[in-house]
Amino acid sequence: MSKAEKSPTVPIPEAKPSSPNAAKPATSKDEFFKNIQGYLDEAARLIDLPPYIHTILQQPKNEIIVNFPVKMDDGTVRLFKGYRIQHNNLLGPYKGGVRYHESVSLDDVKALAAMMTWKCALMNLPLGGGKGGIKFNPNEVSRDELQRITRRFFHALGPNIGPETDIPAPDVGTDAKVMAWAMDTYMNTVGQLMKQAVKGVVTGKPVASGGTYGREKATAQGVVHCITEWADERDFNLGGATMIVQGFGNVGSNTSVILSKLGVSTIAVGDHAGYLYNPEGFNPHKLQDYVKRHRSIAGYPGGKPITREEFFRIKADIFTPAALENQVGVDEARDLQVRLVAEGANGPCTPEGERILLDRGIDILPDVLANSGGVTVSYYEWVQNKRSESWSIEEVDARLEKAMKKAYREVSEVARQKKQSLRIAAYCVALQRIAAAYGEREIFP
Fold first, then answer.
1. Same domain assignment for residues 257 and 121
2. Which residues bind NAD(+) (predicted)?
3. Domain around 258
4. Does pLDDT of 25 surpass 70?
5. Is 44 domain-assigned?
6. What is the domain count for the chain?
7. How far is Cα 28 from Cα 85, in angstroms, rounded to an integer?
8. Are 277 and 290 a contacting pair, CB within 8 Å?
9. What is the pLDDT of residues 64-107, one digit of tens each?
10. 131 an active-site residue?
11. Environment class of residue 73 by beta-carbon count within 10 Å: exposed (0-12), middle (13-18) or buried (19+)?
């Protein structure tokens, strides 16, 4: 495809308003951990990973499950189940987000924690992989209830987290405010002498509470850097390109906003409430503000409701899945009419869906590379907290751009050398770094 050539949009027939049921995953989430294990196995064979290292990496080091009571606004007491999975800390403290969602499960969080190990190693960060979550719908509780749930969860985790041990961050259903509550809870449990020395216990905090400039958009910014590198490789001009986005939370909305400055028009969006289409392109700033106020795209007047099936059949240049896992299965992969899938979410494509996409000549920027900008800037925040420094947005952005482009080129080169997908190449790069550390340190005792 030349620089001037674009995938044309097509008229969408009249459709009934899309329902939440239309946004359900393509396959069972129970398969997610198995999928991640499959990628690990494939990459391990390609790089001749020593069997003992492969064995260690197949399961997390620690699996923490806590059940804790919270008094709700109506006076009743509700029991919540929370998880913190610590996959591997060979390279540094466990690092990974905390997810608030009704679908959170043990295997799901195990898969996400393992992915954090690969991301940190791929980005050459002195961090390991972790992930946490609570099984509930944060949209169904009040702000005060959300704060009490957060504080009780982090209190229940106790000494299992810490700025040199395990460093949580925002994920689906959580944000900077939740991290501020988490930090304050931890600070008030470690004693007065340590209180100001532990700001780095979480990242993704508000700037006024020790956060870093650029963290909110960091994951999306990383996705965009990968898209621009991909476009440069293929001599593809992003000016005038079109995109569809599934999930218009932090990652999806910021990806749309940043790419709009490069001339990319978002023509269809979807989330848990349904899907909308606008062939002229949405105003991503207005839609982002609307979602922040209303918690979904439902009712936004700037688009026409369509079904989930119609969303996946829209012609565009780029598809950015930024929702949950396993959204692109066999049917969706056959329907998609795009040139590139840029994974803003973790595990949006099933292995079967990915094979179909690649066979059809559709490129995939894999999650382990594309959305690693979030943990990279979280690392910058952690460093600033340790040094009692505050970097400018320009410094943060410059460091992230350099890191993302370097990682993309490394992965792209390995993919060419080994004739593999970018996903397996990313796993290979990450595993080689982990294997080097195990080889030098060996096993204790």
1. no
2. 219, 250
3. 20-24+218-370
4. no
5. no
6. 2
7. 21
8. no
9. 999 999 999 999 999 999 999 999 999 999 999 999 999 999 99
10. yes
11. exposed
Does 165 share its domain with 63?
yes
| Residue among 336, 316, 340 at smallest CA distance from 328 | 336
For residue 414, is it within any domain?
Answer: no
3-state DSSP call for residue 428?
Answer: helix
Block residue for tokens 């620690």:
62
Main-chain dihedrals φ then ψ at residue 177, nearest 5 degrees = -65, -40
pLDDT tens, residue by residue, 104-150: 999 999 999 999 999 999 999 999 999 999 999 999 999 999 999 99
Q: Which of 202, 233, 252 is the last residue of a domain?
A: 202
Distances in Å between the Cα of 57 and the Cα atoms of 89, 120, 279 are: 11, 14, 46
pLDDT per position as a tens digit, 273-312? 999 999 999 999 999 999 999 989 999 998 999 999 999 9
Residues annotated within the binding site are: 95, 119, 219, 250, 378
Cβ atoms within 10 A of the Cβ of 277, count? 22
Residues 112 and 171 in one domain: yes
Q: Left if phi > 0, otherwise alpha if psi is -120 to 50, otherwise beta: which for 249? A: beta
Picking from 345, 370, 395, the residue at the C-terminal end of a domain is: 370
C-alpha separations of 385 from 126, 131, 181 in Å: 15, 21, 17
Which residue in 323, 350, 349, 377 sits closest to 207, CA to CA? 377
Cis peptide before 301 (omega within 30 of 0): no
Tokens 């595993």 -> residue: 431
Same domain, yes or no, for 245 and 163? no
Note whether residue 404 is domain-resident: no
The answer to whether the pTM exceeds 0.85 is yes
Q: Are residues 234 and 134 in the same domain?
A: no
Task: Please pick, among 61, 131, 135, 217, the residue that the annotation labels catalytic.
Answer: 131
Binding annotation for substrate: 95, 119, 378
